[in-house]
Amino acid sequence: MKILLKQLTIALLIILTGCATPQVYNPDELDKKSLSRVFSDSGELFIYTADYSAWILYIYDLDNNELTKRRIGSTYINDISLPPGTYYFHVFCKNQWYQASPSAYFRLEAAKNYEITCEEGERDGNTFFNKGSHSIVHLKIKEL
Predict the structure, then answer these.
(1) Is the pLDDT of residue 129 over 60?
(2) Is 25 within 8 Å of 65 (Cβ atoms)?
(3) Can you tell me the distance from the alpha carbon of 99 to that of 116, in angstroms, rounded to the nearest whole number?
(4) What pTM was estimated for this model as a whole?
(5) pLDDT at site 19
(6) Which residues pair with 103 in a beta bridge?
(7) How far is CA 58 from CA 28, 90, 109, 144, in A?
(8) Nearest to 90 by CA among 115, 121, 66, 59
(9) Which of 78, 97, 99, 136 could form a disulfide with 121 if both were Cys (CB 3.0 to 4.6 A apart)?
(10) What's the structural domain count of the chain?
């Protein structure tokens, strides 16, 4: 039974993170070396940890055009290359107990790699077993 549960968990994680191949958005056909690459930390086993894992749901440009043309059966993105610029990221965050869908604008510079993560902010005063009943999840981006 334990083996079956482990196999099902692994299969579920593969499906959730997708057999995700990196995506590229490059409408101006810039040199690939000048593109920014954005990763999410979606490889974490959120089922077993209190830390949040992040999956990119959507990316929009400043004209509100969706750039994430996801493939059929692929709901999350964990690796995408984009031209330098400012983008609006909408991300799904999940840990062992909670989930959230925060959004934020980030400016990407040419030829740099970034990682998007979800970080828990301050909890409010309402408590349930010493856990705030309402917590805020923020997106963070760091250059790798």
Answers:
(1) no
(2) no
(3) 16
(4) 0.74
(5) 47
(6) 90
(7) 20, 5, 19, 21
(8) 59
(9) 136
(10) 1
* 28 neighbors 72 (Cβ within 8 angstroms): no
The whole-angstrom separation of Cα 92 and Cα 99 is 7
Sign of CA dihedral 103, 109, 114, 120: negative
The full DSSP string for 50-100 is SS-EEEEEEEE-TT--B---PPTT---BSEEEE-SEEEEEEEEEE-SS-EE
For residue 130, give both structure tokens.
């010493």
Provide the domain limits for residue 120. Answer: 2-143
DSSP at 133: S
Mean pLDDT over each residue of the chain, to the nearest integer: 79
